[in-house]
Design a protein that fits this description.
This is Acyl-CoA thioesterase. It comes from Sporosarcina siberiensis. GO terms for molecular function: hydrolase activity. It holds the Pfam family 4HBT_2. By secondary structure, the chain is of the alpha+beta class. It has one domain: Thiol Ester Dehydrase, Chain A, CATH 3.10.129.10. The protein is 26% helix and 34% strand. It contains 4 helices and 7 strands; from the N terminus they run βααββββββαα. Strands 1-4-5-6-3 form a 5-stranded antiparallel beta sheet. A two-stranded antiparallel sheet has the order 2-7. Strand 4 and strand 5 (87-95) form a beta hairpin. The chain is elongated and about 45 Å long.
Length: 141
Amino acid sequence: MFISEKEVEIRYAETDQMGVVYHANYLVWMELGRTKIIKDLGYTYAQLETVGYLSPVIDLSIQYKAAMRYGQTATVRTWIEKHDRLRTTYGYEILHENGTVAATAKSEHVLVAKDTFRPVPLKKVHPEWDAKYKEIQRSKD
């Protein structure tokens, strides 16, 4: 399974009054992870946007396991959980420096035409990218 990793230095502004990372920041880190895996595979979101497509989140689940704090470095591990005709599900683990899991998550995305917001298969827009996602996806069903 192909897994991309992105380190994130936790900034003070990302913490809440309790001194732990505010929950919504994990979503930002997940975006960094998606961007990194796409880059590691040789593509960019910008390529899609330039030709008139967007990839919005349509579903998200996250499970918080162990608090992270200012001054720590988080590692975001990202992989393609599942990719089919219209949907791509990314999987994530966000880890402490010692390997302890801070959070696990999945986000589901579709590719849509920017002007109509109607779903479009990635295979139609970028066949090589689609083939790579199918090749490395974790769930083969």
